[in-house]
Structure formats: C-alpha cells, structure tokens
C-alpha cells in the first residue's frame, strides 16, 4: 500500500495543483490554488482529501454537500484525480471509500460523457448510472 489518505491541509496546495493537471484542468498559479483550497477548507459544506505517498500528494478528492429545496440533498464528488504514474494501485478507490466512510447519505458523481474510463471506475466501486443530462452555462 504505502500511501495515506487524509484530510487536505493548506500546505498541500502545490501538490494538489500539480496532480490537477493530469485531468486537464487549466493550470492555476500556486496562489490561485491556495486561495481555492483555503475557501474549501473553511466551508462547512466542502471537504478535500488527499492521497500522500512518500511525502507527495498523488491524488485528491473534493466532496461537497448539495442542498436541494424540493428533492433529497446529497453528497457529490466534485473532483477526483490520481497521478498517472500511480493509477491502478487502488488510490482512487481508497479516496472514494474514505469519503464514503466519513459521510453517510446519498452520493453522486458527474462524469463527462467522453470519460468512459471514469464511468467504468465508478461502476466498479458500486455507483450506478442514474441519468444523462446536459449542462448549460452562461458567463456574465
């Protein structure tokens, strides 16, 4: 095993930033990553967990609680990334399991239609596909 799953700390910002680039997220500066991480760590509805191997962050998971007015509220995985060089070692599964163990309730995750490897991963760990949807955006 060798890795440890734990709650993220502000000092993990650089490692989280580096790992995030594996998923194709736009490159943020370290100061931008730190500001985002600080906001999540100070939120009562967000949690960030990291996988640490040999003092390096090799994966992270962001979980948030989605309140709903007219339907059941739920936890949603807002992001899960594992470094390519350690994929297939159970780190993603361990991050998800850590979140499931820490929080009880309904869980959701949204995946891009094109990320079929992600679909297979979530199905393999017990999630089931419940619907397809479109995402509409506007920037003002």
Automatic annotation (TrEMBL):
Entries under InterPro entries matching the protein: Acyl_CoA_acyltransferase, GNAT_dom, NAT_camello-type
Single annotated GO MF: N-acetyltransferase activity
Protein name: GCN5-related N-acetyltransferase
Signal peptide limits: none
Domain of life of the source: Bacteria
Keywords, in A-Z order: Transferase
CDD domains recorded: NAT_SF
Limits of the N-acetyltransferase domain: 3-140
């Amino acid at each position: 095993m060798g890795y440890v799953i734990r709650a993220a700390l502000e000092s993990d910002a650089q490692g989280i930033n580096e790992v995030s680039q594996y998923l194709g997220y736009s490159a943020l500066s370290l100061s931008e990553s730190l500001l985002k991480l600080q906001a999540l760590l100070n939120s009562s509805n967000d949690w960030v967990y990291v996988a640490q191997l040999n003092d390096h962050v090799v994966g992270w998971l962001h979980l948030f609680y989605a309140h709903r007015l007219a339907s059941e509220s739920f936890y949603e995985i807002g992001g899960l990334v594992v470094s390519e060089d350690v994929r297939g070692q159970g780190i993603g599964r361990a991050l998800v399991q850590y979140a499931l163990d820490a929080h009880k309730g309904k869980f959701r995750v949204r995946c891009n239609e094109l990320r079929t490897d992600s679909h297979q991963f979530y199905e393999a760990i017990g999630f089931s596909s419940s619907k397809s949807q479109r995402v509409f955006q506007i920037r003002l």
